[in-house]
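note to self — DONT lose this again. spent like an hour looking for the file last time. sequence + predicted structure for the chain T wanted, 144 res
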Amino acid sequence: MTVGQNFDFEGNYKITREEIIEFARKYDPQPFHVDESAAAKTMYGGLIASGWHTCAVAMRLLCDGFMNQSTGIGSPGVDEIRWIRPVRPGDELKASLEILEVTPSRSKPDRGSIKHKLVVTNQLDEVVMIVTGITMMRRRVPAD
């Protein structure tokens, strides 16, 4: 992998009203995620998905489009999550990944890490979320 390399994932994920409410009831029961009437009276003007729901969908897109075909071996975490625009029922999300840094491990030559930016967009190509994170990867070690 090289800095600046981009991966546009195939496929998308359609968010349903029912899924928004079900996820939020379990994990983020704020009125604008679980109650359409209450949500209509907020600054959002209607039901929106929890940002954590959007993160979960993004992880699915990342796994399907990149991680499950890569040498990824886990992640020490994310540096930043930005929810740019609300995700609403019927939105179709897709994702892309840009490699920001490639760092070989100093102690384990068969490993390294990549810092990446995951951008999630809706069906109108509007950015809804950006996640900057780190993934540990296996590396090809040159023969002596």
